[in-house]
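forwarding from the other thread:

> can someone predict this with 4'-deoxy-4'-aminopyridoxal-5'-phosphate?

sure thing
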Amino acid sequence: MARIARYYREYGIRLVRGYLQYVWDDSGRRYVDCNTNHGVAFLGHANPKIVEAVKRQVEELWVAPLNFYTPARERFIEEFSRLLPAGFGVVFLQNTGTEAVEVAVKIAKKVTRRPTIVAFTNSFHGRTMGSLSITWNEKYRKAFEPLYPHVRFGKFNVPHEVDKVVGEDTCCVVVEPIQGEGGVNPATPEFLKALREEATRKGALLIIDEVQTGFGRTGAVWAFQRYGVEPDIFTAGKPVAGGLPIGLAVAREEFGDVFEPGEHGSTFAGNAVVMAAAAAASRLLREEDVPAKAEAMGAELAKALQSINSRLAVRVKGAGLMLGLELRVKADQFIRPLLERGVLALTAGVNTLRFLPPYMITREDVEVVAAAVEQVLRAAEAAG
Ligand code: PMP
């Protein structure tokens, strides 16, 4: 028998079921899921409304190339449009976040005919060769160099250096509104404003990567709306199809016809089952006012994490239900002890514990999470 290639740390736990904010292992043990596969299960595991839509679609039609219309795709674009700020009229369908970034950059390259992509320290944009080229951390990229050569990294959150890094050769500036993998680092309003102004001044496009922040997690549908700064293109992914693979780039109307037939494509993009799931997810986001719930429960979780009594805890970062607890020590040592206390969490950067729970997390869940974190930190203190 073949085996699955191993490039992940394994925890020896077999997950057999997921429902809303919880997952269960094969011994029947329940966990509060603040990992959600890096934010994918933001609308909960097996959310009944999405399950229903997928079930119906699975009986009807799975596979249809983009050349043909399908009711599933029509329903998706109708629902998803209601989540878009005015002026963002075109959606490019992909299957993953990294592909969403790739297509956004391809649009910028074709529109401007310039080579250079500007990205920032601590960025993460994906693991295909293009998006990896604009991902900062050596641990992801070093083994694969040389990557796409025309990349300049500016300093994240240093607005007065933006004019030095964005030039006449720049096709696009790519930035996360809150860096996820890099440490749950929110961009400052001054920084995003400086990027917008400088991109406009130099004729480059501003691409905001919302793959982790987007679709309600930070308390707004799109995190850039919290800043009053608008990109030319933004990306989304992770939770948009309720757990099925999706990625998309959303662009201003004027970029809708940028590609000639053949210049872009993707076999699985717009898959009918994924579209049915994404239509149901988009509708649910609006009908249940998910961003407002993320904001409210995020405030609860932030407060609980802030009041953790441990000298290893430094501060809480992030927005809505995208939160990091910065520690004085490396964070990865706490993932397994948290599992043992019934909490799935993530790390970000080197010394941040990251929490990306589903929006329906309750006050009781928050208490469970905060108590578990306090226990594992205090155990580490006691161990010296
Ligand atoms: N951009 C950002 C901001 C991300 O956080 C991620 C995934 N962590 C990606 C892009 C890549 O998404 P995917 O893994 O779906 O390709």
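The chain has two domains: 15-47+289-383, 48-287. thats all i got for now
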